[in-house]
Amino acid sequence: MSAALHDHHSLDNQTTKVEHNNYDLEAGNGVNMAGGAPLGRQISVQLTNEQYERLFLNPGGQKSKGDAAKRFGNPTPLGIASFLLCLTPFSCELMGWAGTTTNAAATTVGAYYFIGGIGLYLSGLLEWIIGNTFPATVFMVFGAFWLAFGFLLQPTQGIAAALGASSVDYNAGIALYLVWWGLLVLIFLIASLRTNVVFVALFTFLDITFWLLVTLYLDIAQAKTAHLATLMKAAGATGFLTCICGWYLLVVLVFGSTGIPLALPVGDLSNFMSPRRKDA
Length: 280
Prior knowledge:
Elements: E1 15-23, E2 32-33, E3 37-38, E4 40-48, H1 49-56, H2 68-71, H3 76-94, H4 109-129, H5 133-153, H6 159-163, H7 168-191, H8 197-221, H9 228-258
Helix pairs in contact: 3-4, 3-5, 3-9, 4-5, 7-8, 8-9
């Protein structure tokens, strides 16, 4: 179910320089020699705001300050992949593919912990290190979500057994918890209006998924069974649409990182709602 701090610049007038030192291995592995001058060559690649935003998913194409973005790779594909490898199977289970029910989610608890939790936390931390506040926040928050969700579903915790899987406390409690996730994703959706169209679509479908799950759990708590199957499949379908956007974005990011000449459109929004610049 593939970013940046904080000066606002014009797309036409500003670029970011990404530098890599490629030293001659036969001439000393980049060690300073010949009077302290490094033997090697420096390659500079100019990235426009749009290109930077495509790779880092940071609102408005704002670029990282300092040298961190030059020294480290792009952690964004790791975060997107970690999220997708949890949400995609869960969405399929909600839709009942291959005869599954929601009980099948217990088989992917390990993925929620080690892929969703650790993978998203790690990518979020790396985004924070290179100064990309928005994706760092999104990845780390959803890392916490998958850890908490895995804990809830883990059979050895016995949470559902203790409260009763059909009880008011269990289902209404989950519904109230998901309400605030729906609100948080709405905030992320608004913030993503300065990234790209694919990211906006991803958050739109994801927010709908959360609100459908809220309705589903409230109906279970109130013993309203008439539309449970429909709500479950609808939540799975919108979750799967979220994943389609995510997989597309992951392809764009991974292909872009390896230089594959396949410029898939994402619908750049880096100049949308640009802040007004004060006259000097």
